[in-house]
Amino acid sequence: MPSYALRVGDKAVEMSAQKRRHMLPIPGSEDEKLAMETLAKIKARRGLPSELARELGITPQAIDQWRVVPLWAVNDVSRITDIARNLIRPDWITASGHLRTK
Predict the structure, then answer these.
(1) Nearest CA to 88 among 78, 97, 98, 80?
(2) pLDDT for 12-53, tens place per residue?
(3) What is residue 47's DSSP assignment?
(4) Does the residue 11 lie in any domain?
(5) Would you call 84 helix, strand, or coil by DSSP?
(6) What CATH number does residue 38 fall under?
(7) Measuring CA to CA, which residue among 64, 60, 88 is closest to residue 74?
(8) Does 9 map to a domain?
(9) How many domains in the chain?
(10) Is the distance from CB of 34 to CB of 87 less than 8 angstroms?
(11) Kindly report the CA angle at 59 between 63 and 15, in degrees rounded to 5?
(12) Which residues contact 6 (CB under 8 A, 6 or more apart)?
């Protein structure tokens, strides 16, 4: 099974594709709906996906493939869009901005 690196702060964490899938919101949950709505608003803002792609060092096509914003990109997307992190990924971040403990 392939592995991927997730950036957490300054550290890269290796994880399997199976583990990475578990980092997505529960399908059909309110958290997933909010995360998807927020991403749809980001994608709809003219020029914003290109700006995000440039800042993140990825292609606009990669952003277009996101179902929700990946955890590694939440801080940068929040900074660039001025959208609160808990709206971008409510499944992982509380309203106070802290990581949710599951």
Answers:
(1) 78
(2) 555 555 455 557 777 788 888 999 999 999 999 999 999 999
(3) T
(4) no
(5) coil
(6) 1.10.260
(7) 88
(8) no
(9) 1
(10) yes
(11) 65
(12) 12, 13, 15, 20, 23, 71, 72
